[in-house]
Design a protein that fits this description.
mainly alpha
Length: 139
């Protein structure tokens, strides 16, 4: 039960939150700025901001892992070239597919960052929120 609940949080709530974070970044007027409510309404608003802070922390950790794997993928693939081209050796195909996918995402994000940096940042944030789903697809 606990494993499925944690998957729910990571695979549904975090991607939705990352889309909301990108939306709120480009439209900050949707966020409340004044707290003119009663004590109970103010407490609910502060509770919501606490949830936002917790989800932002989880999103930041996911972004760090995504950044590591994206930046490490060219080095991993460079180290595996000898095994892929040379005499046949055992290569973990799932691992190779994972790092090839990471390298393709790195190239796409790099090209997008050169042409349109705000869109590249938005894509990276959404990818960071959806990282668990991406890892499952790539492996």
């Amino acid at each position: 039960m606990g494993r499925y609940l944690s998957r729910f949080w990571v695979e549904l709530i975090l991607p939705l939150y990352s889309v909301f974070a990108v939306f709120a970044y480009f439209r900050p007027s949707v966020l409340p700025t004044e707290f003119d409510q009663s004590v109970l309404e103010g407490a609910v608003v502060w509770l919501l901001w606490g949830i936002v802070a917790a989800l932002s922390g989880i999103l930041a950790i996911s972004a760090m892992f995504l950044c590591f794997y994206l930046l490490y993928s060219p080095f991993y693939l460079a180290g595996q070239i000898r095994q892929m081209v040379g005499p046949p050796k055992w290569v973990d195909r799932g691992e190779l597919r994972f790092y090839l996918g990471c390298f393709v995402m790195l190239c796409l994000l790099g090209g997008l960052a050169i042409t349109n940096p705000p869109v590249a940042l938005s894509a990276f944030i959404i990818l960071a929120g959806s990282a668990q789903i991406l890892w499952r697809i790539l492996v």
